[in-house]
Design brief:
Blueprint lengths: L7 H8 L60 E2 L1 E5 L2 E9 L43 E5 L35 E2 L21 E8 L10 H4 L7 E2 L2 E2 L8 E2 L5 E7 L5 E2 L16 E5 L2 E11 L1 E4 L3 E4 L2 E9 L4 E2 L8 E2 L11 E9 L10 H4 L22 E5 L3
Parallel strand pairs: 1-11, 4-6, 16-19
Antiparallel strand pairs: 2-3, 3-20, 4-5, 6-7, 6-10, 8-9, 10-13, 12-13, 14-15, 16-17, 16-18, 19-20
């Protein structure tokens, strides 16, 4: 927290007559709201979806007002897609450059078969493995609040409380879920940022037993073994004796983003029909308020030799359209996904498949079943030329309510 310098001399003067100088009273005692999270070290894809460059990662500077040093200066834009012929969309997030080969970063050997048809088996993409694959940090989820309807209302609100959007920073008749890890990157001077974060979390179920709404804002407070107002499964203590939570074996695609960055769906017009915060959900990290996009559940499947991995669905895009073929790319408006959110086969992780469409641009298929007719031209995104762009074989493709 910062105090204005003009205020400090007065504080010091008054402290000569008082036992302590506390201009903020008791508001900063205990589990206080420390304000919005500082996003200066967030990895770029969790601050903006602007300016995709040859490495297929979002970048600052497009538009020029989108800068790393200013929180809320960027936007996160949904990509247009189709499912079963109907318009749809997805918020795109990458696997980190430490998990999948990315232009301008050292190559990584996580896709054993490399590029080409053998890579059609997601079983070969090792970051999909539940054990030793993508990180799955804990998120403490109150009363199954990953279900439709938002955050838990099973907590105890203030007497006669009614939410006021102009007065209240959060709803005090709800309890936000608690995160364990941020999407922070390492920002070396003169080099690209590096990170390992992905929007996958392991759910630790928490049951309310009378706790004050928004009264718990950190993992440490929640896991205090003296608490009796919540029930939470505990794992083994850490080496320093601090407690841990025990995940229940279910996973969600929850992408932490810059709380000040508008998240715009296809058709949203900033300042026209939205301010860009309709799709945010809010929770807590070490008493700081965080925002996230809810991409829904990630189920698992078992692959040989008895190793569970995260389920994927296919995302198709035409790499050439017409005769002679006009080059196209992922995210250009012709993407097609197999399953909508709510379908048993839905996944917020997409395997990217490309094909050649010889017909007119107005006749590009909008349905996965129709695209199957072009299966002889299927391939994984083509291998790059030296120094050229890589279209990733797998991406996170969150369908957000």
């Amino acid at each position: 927290m910062r105090l204005r310098w003009s205020f400090l001399p007065l504080c010091l003067l008054v402290s000569a007559a008082l036992s302590a100088c506390r201009p903020w009273g008791d508001a900063l005692q205990g589990e206080f709201n420390a304000g919005s999270i500082d996003t200066i070290d967030f990895a770029p894809p969790y601050r903006t979806s602007n300016g995709y460059t040859t490495n297929q990662l979002a970048a600052f500077g497009n538009p020029t007002t989108c800068v790393r040093q200013t929180e809320g200066s960027c936007t996160i834009q949904e990509f247009a897609a189709f499912i079963g012929g109907a318009p749809a969309g997805y918020f795109r997030f990458p696997f980190s450059p430490s998990q999948i080969s990315t232009t301008q970063y050292p190559p990584v050997a996580t896709l054993l078969a490399g590029y080409g048809p053998p890579a059609f088996s997601p079983d070969l993409f090792t970051p999909l493995r539940v054990a030793g694959g993508v990180p799955t940090p804990n998120v403490y989820v109150f009363d199954s609040s990953f279900l439709p309807g938002g955050d838990s209302s099973s907590c105890t609100p203030p007497a006669n409380y009614t939410f006021d959007a102009f007065r209240d920073d959060v709803r005090y008749d709800r309890q936000g879920n608690i995160f364990q890890v941020l999407p922070n990157a390492t920002w070396p001077i003169g080099a690209n940022p590096t990170w390992t974060y992905t929007p996958v979390v392991g759910v630790v179920p928490v049951t309310s037993q009378g706790e004050k709404c928004q009264g718990i804002k950190s993992e440490a407070t929640l896991l205090d073994k003296a608490r009796t107002d919540v029930s939470v499964p505990h794992g083994p203590d850490r080496g320093d004796g601090s407690p841990t939570g025990l995940p229940g074996g279910t996973y969600q695609a929850w992408a932490l983003i810059d709380p000040g960055a508008p998240a715009l769906k296809v058709g949203d017009v900033l300042g026209g029909n939205t301010f860009g915060f309709t799709h945010h959900r809010y929770g807590w990290f070490n008493q700081y308020l965080v925002a996230y996009l809810d991409g829904g559940p990630i189920t698992t499947v078992t692959v040989p030799p008895n190793a569970p991995r995260f389920r994927t669905q296919r995302l198709y895009y035409p790499r050439l359209i017409g005769t002679p073929g006009v080059p196209a790319n992922i995210g250009a408006g012709n993407d097609v996904m197999e399953f909508p959110r709510g379908d048993p086969n839905y996944s917020p992780i997409c395997q990217v498949i490309t094909y050649i469409f010889p017909g007119a641009p107005t006749a590009v298929p909008r349905d996965a079943a129709a695209i199957q007719a072009f299966s002889p031209s299927f391939t994984a995104p083509p291998a790059p030329t030296p120094g050229g762009p890589i279209v990733p074989n797998f991406i996170f493709c969150l369908q957000v309510p």
